[in-house]
Structure formats: C-alpha cells, structure tokens
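Write out the 3D structure for:
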Amino acid sequence: MRERKGVFVFMGQLHIMDHPLIQHKLTIMRDKNTGSKDFRELLEEISLLVGYEITRDFPLDDVEIETPLVKMTAKRISGKKVAIVPILRAGLGMVSGLITLLPVARVGHIGLYRNEETHEPIAYYFKMPQDIQQRFVIITDPMLATGGSASAAIAMLKEHGCSNIRLMCLVAAPEGVQRLQKDHPDVDIYTCALDEKLNENAYILPGLGDAGDRIFGTK
C-alpha cells in the first residue's frame, strides 16, 4: 500500500478516498435517518469530489494565451474526451456531480438488474455516444457488491472498443473488488470506503442500504 496526496492505493487499482469532506458526507449518507433529498445532494457532492481525483492524471498541453496584462504559456487538458456511463438506476445519482466538473462530457447508459437468486446481472439496456471507443469512460454505480454488474458493464464497453475505463463507486465490498480485479485488472476502482463484507443476500455490510431506493425514495 502507498499513499498519494490523500488517496490510498492498493495493488495500483483500488483507490480509496480518505478526504475528510468525503468521509463526513459518507457518514451522513450511511445514517438510516437521512432522507432522499439529503442523500441525493450528498451523493452529487461526493461524486464531484471523487471526480477530481479520477481526472488527476489527465495529460496537459502547453498553450499560448493572453491575460489582461501579458502573454503567457499555460496548461490545458490535452484533448481528453470523456464519457460518463451510469449503471441504471442508482448510477444516475452520480452523474450530475461529474457533469458539473466535466460539462462537455457525453453520457451513456447501461441497464442491468440483479437476479435475486443467482445475484448475477441481467442486461436490458445499452446506449452509448457513437464515438464511445475514443473516450475516457467513467462508469458510475454507488455500490460495488458482488462485482457482477460492474464486471458485465465493463465487458460490454470493451466489446464496443473502449480501452480506457475507470469505475467510480461510493462503497465497495472486498468480494466485489476481488472479482473486478480478476475480471478486469486494467480497470481502476475509485471508492470512498472498503466495507467489511457481503451478507447472505449479497448486500454490503455495514453499507448504506439500497442506494437506488434511497436516491429515488422508492422504499
């Protein structure tokens, strides 16, 4: 394990955000008494903060500009085109924060639901920008539990030519991290917490409940 500017990195692939603001907001989200309005707003805020770290290594070019006083050589992102791809439905709650940070990003959507008996994902929707294979892809899903949905989503994107993919989640279970690192060792995972384990129903413990239900107030 090594530390880099407030980010703990495991195996070069799992990045756990330990920023005090992120941890504070996550604690409020975990609380069962936090309502949907506050949950949504906090998720948006955390997504923006984590997005700052995901884009930390974007390449820069030197450009000539003129300030109100002088000409200068400044830095500009080197033509990096981004796509934000939420896994429906809970991943939608993380899009607005990233769009605030990356307003010209395109947004794709992957629809997956989990078979409650096998816990394996079943795909029902896939819609991407036409040039998705040329873009830096950020997949969003608040919960990395078994890793099945994230692994399936990444596989679908790779089938469409994507090679630069990162996963952004809120809470991860060791089982999900292990599966993703086995299935897709080239994909970095950015999360705010590595929780203890999965329960018998494949929910993360201590977790924060069903993220989709808490975002949309459906339970």
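The two ends are 39 Å apart (CA to CA).
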